[in-house]
Every structure is written in structure tokens, then in C-alpha cells.
């Protein structure tokens, strides 16, 4: 029972805490008290909590030009409908009290309300804000590697939020930074913008997040159409999913890359070496086969002519004809000298030889 009271108190405190940021635009001037614009404004901001709590998002409008007012409400994707309504009611009252301008937005941790004399569904101009309290957060020791992890997480969440309409353009996730530190984050867009507009808005927000909070243990960027946040604690209630993407540079991913490259290199070398050995063996086998076929042919011819062959295929003797080796012939013809040349026959040049002192 005590635990339930503490839990409800924590949730209630988060929902009705002070606003993160209030932007009362002075660019278009203020409205007059008691004017038709103020009456339409009250209708819009008082209607938004009830019509938006069940879905977490809605647009509404009241009045005609030049006193028309457009309004928009958005709750964080993980809060309940009752918590959403409580947050929006607090935001609407605070906005009416603090802003007298014709264009204003207020952001809480769990919700935001925006109104303007312009049509909000046609406004896609990014104007990100970050609360002052973000600059007061503690710094991390490893600033370079830490933000690599933050960016990896936010890039994945931004894509998930923009492309997955089943999640109502809201995504949460986490990534392990060290053995005892996990980074949690979320990305969200209003549901009246396109996928590409959502991604563009979140990319601008990520740049602002780097500028304000890259070395901090947490950070948040809010705007009219999208918002980003990360912390070293789980601040949202939705069931999160671990971003199973490659580890950012400077960490264990290089070890994994080295292992993969090594395995790939060894595999390629094994294939190349194996193929080379196979080809060489095949060449040698073909050569041996040709050599054996050649010797077989010589043996066949030699037997039919009564010729004796050595194992190497050299002619030794014949029953019909005497044989001389090449060295003997060279000596007998005086190395085929022109003076011993007798003429040209059908089988080649004919030489005179001297054999054992006798000319032939």
C-alpha cells in the first residue's frame, strides 16, 4: 500500500511539475484582454485536454479571421490517458496565465500545448528549445565516446518514430554504454506532419542536442513538431527495446570488425591456395598422362620395327639398322661442318661422316 502511494505520488509529481519551457512569441504582438481572440483562445485551450487525452494528440480551432485561433496538444507516447489529461489541463492554465501573445507554446515532461493565430497544420518551421536546467546537469568523463552512443541511439529512434505509424510517431529505446551505465532515450513527432518532415525536424533537434548536451548525463530538445530526450535513467514508462546496431567507434566494434576481416581473409587465402594446388596437380597429372601415352606409342612402334628402347624412351638398337647417339654424329660430321655437306635430301641435309677412320 505504501509502495503504491509512493509510486502514484512520483507519477503525479512528474506530470504536474513545473514546465520545461514556455515560449510566448512577441513577433506577432499581444492580443487584447476581453477581445474575440481571447475568447476563442480560451475555447481552444480548455477543449484540448478533453479531446486529446484518449489519443494523446489532437488539433482544434475556434473563430474566424482575423480572430481565429488554432490549437494543438501532444502527450508523450508512454503516458496514460488520465496522466495526459492532467498534464494538458495544467499546461492550458499555465499558458493562459503566462502568455498574452498571439502565438505561444508550453512544454512539460509529459505533454505540450501550442496555439497560434495561424493554421498550425501548415507550419513546419523548426524552432527547437532546450530548458536551462539541462545546462546544470553533471558532465560525463568520456565526452567523445559518450555522444557517439547518444547519437547512435537517437538516429535509430528518429527513424523508428518517423516511419512506424503503429507507434504513433513515438519511439523509446536504450543502449549499453558501459558495464554500469545505460543510455535511455525517446524521439517523438506530432502526427500532423509527414514522415520526411518528422525526420527533418528530428535531425535539426539532434544538432541542437549536441550543442547543448553532448557532454552531459542527460538532455532534451523540444519544438512545436518534434522532441528528443536522453538520460542515464529510465524516465519513460513504455517497454523499451535495445537498439541492436553496431557499437559506435572507439569501442568493441573494432574488435569484431578485425575478427570478421581476419576470418574473411583466411577463407579467401584458403580458397586461392587450394585452387592453385589443385590446378598444379592437374597439370602435372595431364603431363604425366601425355608422357605415358608418348612412351606407349614409341614402344608400340619400336616393337613393330624390332627396336630396343631405354626406360627414358631413347633408341638403343635395331635388328635392321645400327643407331648412333647425337654426340657420335656431331664428332663424325665435324659439328655439321659445311665442308662435309653432300647435298639436300627429302628428309633434310646429307653429310659426309668419318667413322673409325673410314668415310661414309
UniProtKB/TrEMBL annotation:
Transmembrane spans: 256-280
Signal peptide: 1-17
Gene3D superfamilies recorded: Gnk2 domain, C-X8-C-X2-C motif (3.30.430.20), Phosphorylase Kinase, domain 1 (3.30.200.20)
GO cellular component terms, semicolon-separated: extracellular region
Keywords from the named record: Membrane, Repeat, Secreted, Signal, Transmembrane, Transmembrane helix
Compartments it resides in: Secreted
InterPro entries from the UniProt entry: CRR_secretory_protein (IPR050581), GNK2 (IPR002902), GNK2_sf (IPR038408), Kinase-like_dom_sf (IPR011009)
Pfam families tied to this protein: Stress-antifung
PROSITE patterns noted in UniProt: GNK2
Chief localization: secreted
Lineage top rank: taxon: Eukaryota
Gnk2-homologous domain segment(s): 19-120, 128-235
Family statement drawn from the similarity comment of this UniProt entry: Belongs to the cysteine-rich repeat secretory protein family.
Protein name: Gnk2-homologous domain-containing protein
Amino acid at each position: 500500500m505504501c509502495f503504491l502511494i509512493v509510486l502514484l505520488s512520483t507519477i503525479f509529481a512528474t506530470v504536474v511539475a513545473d514546465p520545461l519551457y514556455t515560449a510566448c512569441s512577441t513577433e506577432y504582438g499581444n492580443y487584447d484582454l476581453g477581445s474575440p481572440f481571447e475568447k476563442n483562445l480560451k475555447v481552444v485551450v480548455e477543449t484540448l485536454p478533453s479531446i486529446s487525452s484518449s489519443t494523446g494528440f489532437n488539433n482544434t480551432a475556434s473563430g474566424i479571421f482575423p480572430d481565429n485561433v488554432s490549437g494543438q496538444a501532444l502527450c508523450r507516447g508512454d503516458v496514460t490517458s488520465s496522466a495526459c489529461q492532467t498534464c494538458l489541463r495544467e499546461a492550458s492554465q499555465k499558458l493562459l496565465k503566462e502568455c498574452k501573445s498571439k502565438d505561444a507554446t508550453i512544454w512539460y515532461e509529459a505533454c505540450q500545448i501550442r496555439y497560434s493565430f495561424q493554421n498550425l497544420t501548415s507550419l513546419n518551421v523548426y524552432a527547437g528549445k532546450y530548458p536551462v536546467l539541462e545546462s546544470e546537469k553533471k558532465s560525463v568523463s568520456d565526452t567523445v565516446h559518450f555522444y557517439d552512443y547518444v547519437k547512435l541511439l537517437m538516429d535509430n529512434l528518429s527513424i523508428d518514430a518517423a516511419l512506424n505509424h503503429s507507434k504513433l510517431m513515438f519511439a523509446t529505446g536504450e543502449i549499453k554504454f558501459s558495464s554500469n551505465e545505460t543510455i535511455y532515450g525517446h524521439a517523438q513527432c506530432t502526427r500532423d506532419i509527414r514522415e520526411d518532415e518528422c525526420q527533418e525536424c528530428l535531425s535539426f533537434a539532434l544538432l541542437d542536442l549536441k550543442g547543448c548536451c553532448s557532454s552531459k548525463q542527460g538532455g532534451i530538445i523540444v519544438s512545436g513538431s518534434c522532441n528528443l530526450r536522453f538520460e542515464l535513467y529510465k524516465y519513460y514508462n513504455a517497454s523499451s527495446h535495445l537498439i541492436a546496431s553496431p557499437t559506435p567507434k572507439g569501442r568493441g566494434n573494432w574488435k569484431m570488425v578485425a575478427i570478421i576481416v581476419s576470418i574473411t581473409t583466411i577463407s579467401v587465402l584458403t580458397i586461392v591456395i587450394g585452387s592453385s594446388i589443385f590446378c598444379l596437380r592437374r597439370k602435372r597429372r595431364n603431363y604425366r598422362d601425355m608422357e605415358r601415352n608418348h612412351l606407349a606409342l614409341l614402344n608400340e612402334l619400336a616393337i613393330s620395327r624390332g627396336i630396343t628402347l631405354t626406360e627414358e624412351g631413347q633408341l638403343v638398337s635395331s635388328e635392321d639398322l645400327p643407331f648412333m647417339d647425337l654426340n657420335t654424329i656431331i664428332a663424325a660430321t665435324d659439328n655439321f661442318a659445311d665442308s662435309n655437306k653432300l647435298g639436300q635430301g627429302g628428309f633434310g641435309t646429307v653429310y659426309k661422316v668419318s667413322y673409325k677412320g673410314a668415310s661414309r
